């Protein structure tokens, strides 16, 4: 709806000449101009009487210079510039024009500047513009958005006149009304006669989201804040924030993946406004978990790093990501190193901080709200369930970054040690990542190799991973001994499980003493307990013998190194062969370099069976 001003159909001539006065036409043919108004370089040849009758500011200027016969006035800092003054001059002359959502903010500001109030004329411009905002603009969400757009160049005066607050409150109120109406439209009666919400029905209560994306970030922030105070759903606010970020930041996102332009130039092409958009959106994000998709949070984190946003902004995103890290993917964690081209390919420090946030999150506050969602998942608590998912994710991440030649040992260890020991039920993924790292970083010292291999619990390796580790020459000798020991235990358990009947099942001690012969009747509980104790002692003795053999091997290794320094290449080979013969634990197997898994498994089983038989007979 537009408001028309139809007074006298006079013609107002506007002559504009930037920074100089141009020839002007008379407003009335029979009346000469007696005052010239200059606004931003544009001159208006007007008459004093129409102006002083409605403008208090011009009336005061003319009264103050009555003795000097004021003929020229320059208005500096006039809101809206020459365009706004032209509308005010038309109103003073009674020329017809329309008040619309595109000019009402300018009219409010210019009327305040020129003091066109009811004090000087009834139904003055200020009153009519304010009435238009209250009765027409505030009842329509689209018109409120248009007025806010006009206020971008009229601040802070538009804020002082409460134009911005009226429009933001009206938008928030309309959005909440639409939300309630949409919720009612999705109500339906179930088969039992109860009223329930149809979640599959498409709600149209968020149609306003796209309209807000045209606002400047400071005004958009005020609208979202007003909506939050009014109780708008966090889901709707989150969708609006994602839509705004996509439309504002996507314009320059194509430059990020440019292979020609250096990264420093890409970061420099983003101005302060883009950085302000990211920081403001992060501050407006809902505090509820799972409201914002984690992929969007990772995207905002990459953008914040690219634009060099404040540390508080990046730490806030890392904290939000850490609170729901269990639903992240490997691609999410692969954050490129934007600022340090000579450093690692991926930003490992950021991922480490995210893991620290995940480990330090307060379960009593953050996870109790979602406890009901995990009750049917099994015996694991919500925290343990999340730990298992994150552990698998981190193992894959370590395997992905391990081949990087610039990845330092301390950073790899920091990522691997960031999770507690009970987070991994199987260590195949961690072993795979460590093996890749050892292969790509062959310059590690023996101490570093032993330290990194201590992260793996070889008892939690699968049969395939254990077979691979037993013949992995990149592992320290101590780790290989552990693998062989646990493989021996697994072999014993498999042999014991081959007796399905509990009554006829032999104990570990009996099974190795009688070999393949017949067994006696079932043992009493007392005898069974004594047999288990004997078996435990035998295992401890066997472990002690393995440790003694390991000490002998280390001594032989030291002697061999001294001999190698004095002998030739051929003598080195002979010495190495002599040492291998001394290793009686491995003297029965020649399959370490074999590439056939089945052949190696058979020979390893034979070797372990014979060795364990000898140990028990002993």
Automatic annotation (TrEMBL):
Domain of life where this protein originates: Eukaryota
Q: Which residues form a coiled coil?
A: 529-563
Can you give the residue ranges of the BTB domain? 33-101
- Record-annotated NPH3 domain positions: 206-490
Q: Which PROSITE patterns match?
A: BTB (PS50097), NPH3 (PS51649)
Gene3D superfamilies assigned = Potassium Channel Kv1.1, Chain A (3.30.710.10)
Chain ranges passing through the membrane = none
Q: Does the keyword RNA-binding apply?
A: no
Q: Where is the composition biased (Low complexity)?
A: 588-599
- Regions of biased composition (Basic and acidic residues) lie at 600-618
Please give the pathway this protein is involved in.
Protein modification; protein ubiquitination
What keywords appear on the UniProt entry? Answer: Coiled coil, Ubl conjugation pathway
Ranges for region Disordered: 588-618
Q: Which family does it belong to?
A: Belongs to the NPH3 family.
Q: Which PANTHER family match?
A: OS12G0117600 PROTEIN
Instruction: Report what the protein is called.
Output: Phototropic-responsive NPH3 family protein
């Amino acid at each position: 709806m537009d408001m028309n001003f139809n007074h006298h159909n006079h013609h107002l001539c506007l002559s504009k000449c930037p920074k100089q006065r141009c020839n002007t036409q008379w407003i009335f043919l029979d009346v000469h101009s007696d005052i010239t108004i200059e606004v931003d370089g544009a001159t208006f040849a007007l008459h004093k009487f129409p102006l002083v009758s409605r403008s208090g500011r011009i009336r005061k200027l003319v009264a103050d210079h009555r003795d000097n016969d004021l003929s020229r006035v320059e208005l500096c800092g006039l809101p809206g510039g020459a365009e706004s003054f032209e509308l005010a001059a038309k109103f003073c002359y009674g020329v017809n024009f329309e008040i619309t959502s595109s000019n009402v903010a300018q009219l409010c500001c210019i009327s305040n500047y020129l003091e066109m109030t009811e004090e000087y004329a009834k139904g003055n411009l200020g009153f009519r513009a304010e009435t238009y905002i209250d009765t027409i603009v505030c009842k329509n969400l689209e018109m409120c958005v248009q007025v806010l757009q006009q206020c971008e160049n009229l601040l802070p005066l538009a804020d002082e006149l409460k134009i911005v607050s009226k429009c933001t409150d009206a938008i928030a109120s309309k959005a909440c009304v639409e939300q309630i109406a949409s919720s009612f439209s999705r109500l339906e009666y179930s088969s039992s006669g109860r009223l329930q919400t149809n979640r599959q029905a498409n709600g149209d209560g968020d149609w306003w989201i796209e309209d807000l994306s045209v606002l400047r970030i400071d005004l958009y922030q005020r609208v979202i804040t007003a909506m939050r105070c009014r109780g708008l759903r966090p889901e709707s606010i989150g969708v609006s924030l994602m839509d705004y970020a996509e439309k504002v930041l996507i314009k320059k996102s194509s430059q990020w993946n440019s292979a020609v332009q250096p990264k420093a130039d890409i970061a420099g092409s983003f101005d302060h406004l883009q950085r302000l958009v990211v920081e403001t959106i992060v501050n407006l994000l809902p505090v509820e978990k799972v409201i914002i998709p984690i992929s969007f949070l990772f995207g905002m984190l990459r953008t914040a790093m690219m634009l060099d946003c404040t540390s508080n902004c990046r730490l806030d995103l890392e904290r939000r990501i850490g609170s729901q890290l269990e639903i992240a993917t490997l691609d999410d964690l692969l954050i490129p190193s934007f600022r340090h081209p000579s450093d690692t390919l991926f930003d490992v420090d950021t991922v480490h901080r995210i893991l620290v946030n995940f480990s330090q999150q307060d379960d009593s506050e953050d996870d109790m709200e979602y406890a009901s969602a995990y009750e049917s998942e099994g015996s694991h608590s919500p925290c343990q369930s999340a730990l298992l998912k994150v552990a698998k994710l981190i193992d894959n991440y370590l395997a992905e970054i391990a081949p990087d030649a610039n990845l330092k040992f301390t950073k790899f260890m920091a990522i691997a040690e960031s999770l507690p020991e009970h987070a991994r039920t199987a260590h195949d993924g961690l072993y795979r990542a460590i093996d890749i790292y050892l292969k790509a970083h062959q310059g590690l010292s023996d101490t570093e190799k032993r330290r990194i291999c201590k992260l793996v619990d070889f008892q939690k390796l699968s049969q395939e991973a254990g077979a691979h580790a037993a013949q992995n020459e990149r592992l320290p000798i101590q780790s290989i001994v552990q693998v062989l020991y646990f493989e021996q235990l697994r072999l014993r358990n498999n042999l014991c499980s081959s007796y399905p009947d509990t009554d006829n099942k032999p104990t570990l001690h009996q099974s190795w003493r009688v070999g393949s012969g017949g067994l006696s009747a079932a043992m009493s509980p007392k005898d069974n307990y004594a047999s288990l104790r004997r078996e435990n002692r035998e295992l401890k003795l066997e472990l002690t013998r393995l440790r003694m053999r390991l000490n002998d091997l280390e001594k032989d290794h030291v002697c061999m190194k001294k001999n190698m320094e004095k002998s030739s290449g051929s003598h080195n080979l002979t010495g190495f062969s002599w040492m291998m013969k001394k290793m009686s634990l491995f003297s029965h197997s020649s399959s370490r370099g074999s590439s056939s898994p089945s052949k190696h498994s058979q020979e390893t089983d034979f070797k372990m069976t014979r060795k364990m038989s000898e140990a028990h007979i002993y």
